[in-house]
Amino acid sequence: MAETDAQHAQENDLETPGDAADWKSGLVKSLMGLAASIVLTLASFWAAGTHSVWGPGLPVLLAALAIAQMGVHLVFFLHVSSGPEGTNTILALAFGVFVVALVVFGSLIIMANLDAGMVGMDGLMRMQR
Amino acid sequence: MSAATTVIAEVEIPISERGPSPRQVIVGYGFWLFLLSDIIIFSALFAAYAVLSGRTAGGPTGVQLFHRDNVLVETACLLLSSFSCAMMSLAMDLRRKAWMAVGAALTFVLGAGFLWLELTEFAGMAAHGAGPDRSAFLSAFFALVGMHGLHVSIGLCWLVSMVAQVFTLGWRPMVMRRLACFSLFWHALDIVWIGVFTIVYLGAH
To answer: Is the distance from CB of B182 to CB of B159 less than 8 angstroms?
Structure first.
């Protein structure tokens, strides 16, 4: 009996509208996310267009800004949290990031290696002579 | 006896002993796993682009083709649509159909504006002989950016269907779970776009 009551409470959780306090905190959170994203986006475009950033450091700066903005989106819009309810989400995210890093950096390293080991057109011509 | 049960009720139950999660948590988690697998697909396209971005085969390079102002407007469209999508979720929490419709309309218009800008850019490039068949760089570019655009167009169809469901079926738990999944999908697309504009457009050399 107690179990079915708990299940009903869980099912009903979706049907009861949130109160005004929830609504306001949600709005504030979204506004904060929007403001942070705008600042980070404009910073990225400014950094890419200006000459006041040291050239070789530019990709690192752009990567840092992009990762920061992805973090902002995850926290403020996708509501990923480090609380006990978010453990599964965080674990899945960590695994996803791991696979993404493996695919991207693995491809780059392997292809650069193959490229360096490849015999160019000039080399082929010389071998045929 | 009754005092004892009250005490037990006040103790916080550890998460491992709370029994199955509510349905919307399970559905959200399942959709989150789908999104992560989708992002892994994108990572393969990003890797292909990163490897091939220098292989222009004597054709136009990224710097010659891309217009940063255009990309900034596209980014603004997606970012604001992400915000209006969050407003739509808030309207769902409050069960306000009119606000939900306003949020959905804004999200749709901004998403459609993004797609329009992107398709105009693609058409302009193709008209100047810089289609996907020109070089390995352009093949990888159209595959990656086109895949994102395809996701956005699917998202727009889904959004129209969600508005129709809210107005015909009402605030059923099933409809609200789907709307929550749509919201996750739309925000994840924005995350992919951050990678696209940073690596493809700003990183063009």
So the answer is: yes
Mutate to test the interface with A, among B17, B41, B49, B79 (most CBs of A within 10 A): B79
Judge whether A53 and B163 are in contact, CB under 8 Å.
no
Partners of residue A30 in chain B, C-beta under 8 Å: 83, 86-87, 90
Q: How far is CA B103 from the centre of its chain?
A: 16
ipTM: 0.84
> For residue B174, which of A9, A23, A111, A14 has the smallest C-alpha distance?
A14
**What span, in angstroms and rounded, lies between the C-alpha atoms of A76 and B74?**
21
| pLDDT of B119 over the 50 cut | yes
Residue showing tokens 């508005």: B163
pTM of the model: 0.86
- CA B30 from chain centre, in angstroms, equals 16
Give the integer Cα–Cα distance in Å for B54 and B70.
Answer: 22
- Written as one letter, the residue type at A83 is G
Distance CA B103, CA A27 (A): 13
Distance CA B51, CA B45 (A): 10
- Between helix A58-72 and helix A20-49 the angle, nearest 10°, is 170
- Per-residue pLDDT tens for A91-102? 999 999 999 999
Reading the block at residue A44, the tokens are 């990225």
Using one digit for the tens of pLDDT, what is the confidence trace for A3-46?
444 444 444 455 556 566 678 888 999 999 999 999 999 999 99
* Residues of A (68-107) whose Cβ lies below 8 Å from B: 69-70, 73-74, 77-78, 84-85, 87-89, 92-93, 95-96, 99-100, 103-104, 106-107
- Name the residue with tokens 């008209």: B127
| Closest CB from A45, A100, A104 relative to B50 | A104
Q: Is residue B28 a contact partner of residue A85, using CB atoms and an 8 Å limit?
A: no
Q: What is the DSSP letter of B54?
A: T
Sequence-distant (6+) residues with CB within 8 A of A79 are none
